[in-house]
Write a structure and sequence with these properties.
4-stranded antiparallel β-sheet; binds calcium ion; 17% helix; Neuraminidase; 28 strands; alpha+beta
Amino acid sequence: MSWLVCGLWFGVVAGMRFSVREIASTLRPIATARRGWIGAIVVVAAVSFFAGAHNYRHQNWPFARGYYADLRKAVGLAPPASVRRAQAAKRGQGEIQTLTLADGTREFVLGTMLHRVKARLFPHFPEGHIAPLADEDGVFSFLHFTRDGAVSLSLLQMEKQELSTRQLGIVKGVHRGTDIFKAPDTNKVYVSYVTIDTKTCVSLKLDEIVIQEPGPIEQRPVFQTSCTLPPYGLNHGGGRIQQDSTGRMFLTVGDFWKSPLAADENSSFGKILVGKPGEGFAIYSRGHRNPQGLLWDADTQTLLETEHGPSGGDEINIIRENLHYGWPHETYGTNYGADPEDVYLADVGVSYGRHDRYTKPIFSYSPGIGIGQIRKVPADSFEFPNWVGSYLIAGMAPRSLSLYRVVIVDNRVVENEPIRLGRIRDFVVAPTGVIVASRVDGLLVVRRDRGKRG
Ligand SMILES: [Ca+2]
């Protein structure tokens, strides 16, 4: 480019002094005398250029056999499909192909680091929470609990990718459904939800539900937090339910935007509770802001939790009994709208940007990802063998809109790959590894894209 600019500049300057005819008549005898030499120089330069282009990082130069030929050989498929597929697989992130099918479902293929993913979105499926029931004979069945309290039963035929759903009834008193859980030992089903009484006092409730067909859903109260009057934040309810290998049940309770209650030892707010239905619940851990994800990992016998930080500081925590996880006294995040260089509330013992005095998260996202549910890819995952042992964590913030594939080794996060699957409210991973996720615009079923390789 610089030679071109110099040439043009020379031309402009020369044009100012001499006419084109004068320049041509001056150059003609030189060109005639040196034609042989100039030809030789042009040939040598061209050969050097093409050879260099071939060697330089195996560029796909017109006359060179470079990167793509090697790739074709390595992948072992006939070109040009192999090249396109390999490129697609390695493209990393983003929807690379979207298809709207005749029945209104949408399908897209997505490249990730270790798998090519094919996802199908069944529209008009309300946003909510999912409790797996069974995965037998190629049919995955699950209960679904919407944000406004409706319970349904769905059967997903995996091979045909057909979804059928039947409404079962409405849970009464639900202001915001926060989770549904089927206990593996008793097969009993539990729901948690935010409820508001006639005095506008808000609390989190845990019910056992009994589904009768026909007939309304029977609700048996299991636990209810104390209530708090406005102002409060209904989106800070927590409400995730899990059970450990001994049958103890865990319930996360958010701070409802009332951080003084999270600091209060006598309040259930900002805590993780433990108990058994019929035997009461007690505080298991404290110092939580808005725990939106909970996972009992039977492989490692640990309880993993995710919670929203204030602005930044979304945490992954390993929960152990009687530990304090910091909120509202400290967080790696900061306060919304605050000047980042202020010294925050130091006089009342609150510190931002550090986490020294209470149990640290194993990882903290800043900026926050809108951290949501956490699940694990099972050991016998047929769908995503390269992801076995990885955790998947929903990122709901507009900048995230992903499931993050997180690898944890020795209680440390060593890998964090966003997989752009949209804004996922809740999801489960079937024993086969199929991911079933609830988005605001429908139900997403995520499998491996096997393409023509079978
Ligand atoms: Ca913390």
